[in-house]
Amino acid sequence: MPRWLPQSLAALVVLAAAMSWLRIPRAVEEARMDELELREGILLRRLDGRPFSGKVVSRDPNGPLRSASMVVGGRLHGLSEGWHTNGVIQVRETFVAGQSEGVRTKWRHDGSRESEAGIRGGRLHGRFVRWDAEGRPTEEAWFVDGLPAGEARQWHPDGSLKSWCRLEDGKVVESQKWSPGEKPDGPTVVAQTR
Questions:
Q1: Domain harbouring 147, CATH code
Q2: How far apart are alpha carbons 151 and 176 in whole angstroms?
Q3: 23 found inside a domain
Q4: Residue 161, class by beta-carbon neighbours within 10 Å (0-12 exposed, 13-18 middle, 19+ buried)?
Q5: Which range marks the domain in which residue 176 is found?
Q6: E strand or H helix at 11
Q7: Are 33 and 52 in contact (CB under 8 A)?
Q8: Could you tell me if residue 162 is inside a domain?
Q9: Domains in the chain: how many in total?
Q10: What are the DSSP E strand ranges found in 22-112?
Q11: Which of 15, 19, 81, 180 gets the most CB atoms within 10 Å of its CB?
């Protein structure tokens, strides 16, 4: 046996152990939706009926990516994104065990941000805001477990306050409306751009 062989084998064993310890990521398996089947809320491989783990993608017939979502054990888990037909991002959100969790952001065809919503357990939770194409807010509301709660506002295109209401358990308990350019009585509520 050549003298270098035992040393090379030992080096390979050390390298394999180091790679395992470092958890170098493997290539993520990719599947098209037509290769999967949704059964009882779980994405299964059509070929063998096993839950899919990897990236589910959808493409236009001419090739551009339309959506990409990470799946673990047949459920959405991780980043999920969709794109307009012109290639501009349309929506981005994160899923945990099949439910949207965190912030869902949407954009228009021109790339301007359209809305942003806090999500918890698949339901609106926290701040929801929508902007016009110039970046001015058009509406803002707060949610708790999917129901509007707290204050909600809408603005006219000129930036003046259109309406304000206070909600409890999804029901309006107090509200006011204004015409374009009209000033609200009491403290002024100013539209903030981001």
A1: 2.20.110
A2: 11
A3: no
A4: buried
A5: 101-194
A6: helix 4-22
A7: no
A8: yes
A9: 1
A10: 30-32, 36-39, 42-45, 54-59, 65-72, 75-83, 89-96, 99-100, 102-107
A11: 81
How many other CB atoms are found less than 10 A from the CB of residue 15?
10
Residues 6+ apart with CB under 8 A from 187: none
Query: What's the helix, strand, coil split of the chain in %, to 5?
Result: 10, 50, 35
How far does Cα 69 stand from its chain's mean position? 10
Q: Cβ distance 151 to 164 under 8 Å?
A: yes
Q: Is 170 inside any structural domain?
A: yes
Q: Kindly state whether residue 11 falls inside one of the protein's structural domains.
A: no
Predicted confidence (pLDDT) at residue 51 exceeds the cutoff of 70: yes
In angstroms, what CA-CA distances link 26 with 21, 41, 46, 67, 75? Answer: 13, 26, 23, 22, 20
**Tens-place pLDDT, residues 144-172:** 999 999 999 999 999 999 999 999 888 99
